[in-house]
Amino acid sequence: MRTHVARLGAAGLAAMLMAPLACAQQAAASEDKAAELAQLKAELAAQRELVDKLMRELQAQRAKIERIEEGRDAATPMLADRPALPPRADDLLLSEQRGTGGQNGGAPAPQNTAPKTAQNNAPNNNQRPPNPAPAGPAPSQPAARAPAQAQQNTAQNNRNNQRPPEVAPLFEAPGVLTPRGKYILEPALQFGYSSSNRVALVGYTVIPALLIGLVDVREVKRNTFTGSLTARTGLSNRMEVEVKLPYVYRSDATVSREIFTGTAVERVFNTSGKDLGDVEVAGRYQLNDGGPDKPYYIAGLRYKSVTGKDPFEVVTDCQTRCIGENVTGTGLPLTLPTGSGFHSLQGSLTWLFPSDPAVFFGNLSYLHNFKRSNVERLVRNDIREPLGELEPGPIIGFNFGMGLALNDKASLSLGYDHSTVGRMKQNGKNVPGSVRTQLGTLLLGYSYRFNDKRSLSVAVGAGVTRDTPDVSLTVRMPFSF
Question: Residue 453 in contact with residue 74, Cβ under 8 Å?
Answer without folding.
Answer: no
